[in-house]
Amino acid sequence: MAPHRLRKKPPSPDATATPAPAVASYPLLSLPPEVVNEILTRLSLRDAVRTSALSRAWRRRWESLPSLDIDIGYGKQALWTVDCVLSRCSGRVRRFHTCLDELSARRLDDWLLVLSRRGGVEDLDLRPDQPYKFLSLHSTIFSWRRLISIDLFACHIPPLPQDFVGFPDLKVLSLGKVKLQRNGEYQLQEIIETSPLLEKLTLSELYIGEDGDDFIEWEIKAPNLRYITICSNIDYGWNFAELPCLHSAVIDLWEYVGHRDFAKFLAGLVQARKLNLCMYYAPANAALPKVNGIKILETLPCTFQNLKLLKLFMHFCELAPIFSLFCFLKSAPNLVKLKIKILKMTGINWLPNEMSFMKLMLSKARLLHTLSISHAYDCSVSHVGPLHELVTYGRASAQAQILFQDCVLLVIYTIPSRKIKVTTTRPDDTIEQNTMGISDLGPELLDLILARLPLRDAARASVLSVAWCRSWRHLSDLNFTSPCAAVCDREAIDGVLLHHAGPVRSVR
């Protein structure tokens, strides 16, 4: 018998295959370096550093990035992070957003000098941590010509250097609670003038010089400015040159612009499409005509042809702001949106001008839902006659309701289909129901009443009846406010947040 012959095993597929390259397990390594850099620069700083854990080849990969962003929010340790990143990564920093605690603030000048040697940044946002102390900035930031956005809060702005040439690429400038040196108005004017691409300007609660400094006339000149917001409790001589591209303006300083050409001040905003103006007090310009000793703004030297949306915050204690309002409306022929849903007038004395304005609103405001009226504390005129006159006056809105309240009386007038219904409530008496009860009011009006109550009283309304047992839980918004001296009740807070389904408007 022939000897048994052993069969050879067929070669294994793995034995003949070409060994896979090492990069197969790390596909990112096969990409060109410029593509990898582009990917890493789109990551947050934290995630870019965490790529060090991918492999030995990636351990220091982030340190060679040509550019990166530093963004450190409130409550985070900026000192160690910024020191580590700036010492290990030699690339330029595009965005430097940092909230600085007291220790980090001491290193700020060193960091700004390091950034200057790398050509500056494009986006700068600096602010102190809470409770804040003002930060002192190094003047080297004025040499950063690549800046596109500046957002500074609670900072000391140093004087401009002699060789300052401006920010040619700056588009956004936001200054909040910053301090400038004496005659800082001129410094601010030069910064704005030398930023030809500036589109958005926000100046809020600035501090310029010292109290009692001489008044300075200066102008905001920005040919490409589209959005401007100015909020200030001090008149720093605000004036506007021609702003041809202006789209939206928010101006909250009317009560302080009192001793200059008020009409000229308004004329600088003539190109605006949207305008928010606070005019709590009448302009005190001596050149304005007077009616019974009150200075009146009768005409404007311009017409707001582009104005489409207007929001005004004002009072009617004097005749001057009312005439100023009508003067302004006459100068805006193309105004298409003037919506009034809730009109609240406090401290009235039933003067003829107040009555005329309320009648005007009732007869013209088609969306008016509520007219809320309250007496002045020293008003000696009875409310009965004027209220009856208002209720029987023609109105444009079928849903209009009149709410009148003084220290002891709440009267709610509803006037659908000209049927007058009155509910009278005295704090020390039981509810006297004439033709309707408070539960018969519309849900929107009930929400309005509850929303004006303190949180404790709104919740206590649950005991009124079964229907009111859960009414406060469905308010459209809620004010969660406690007195400063009150002790925080954890169970009360948990209960409110657990049962209230709507948004919370404020927490104090």
UniProtKB/TrEMBL annotation:
InterPro entries for the chain: F-box-like_dom_sf, F-box_dom, LRR_dom_sf, LRR_FXL15/At3g58940/PEG3-like
Q: Which domain of life is it from?
A: Eukaryota
Q: Which residues form the F-box domain?
A: 25-59
Q: What is this protein called?
A: F-box domain-containing protein
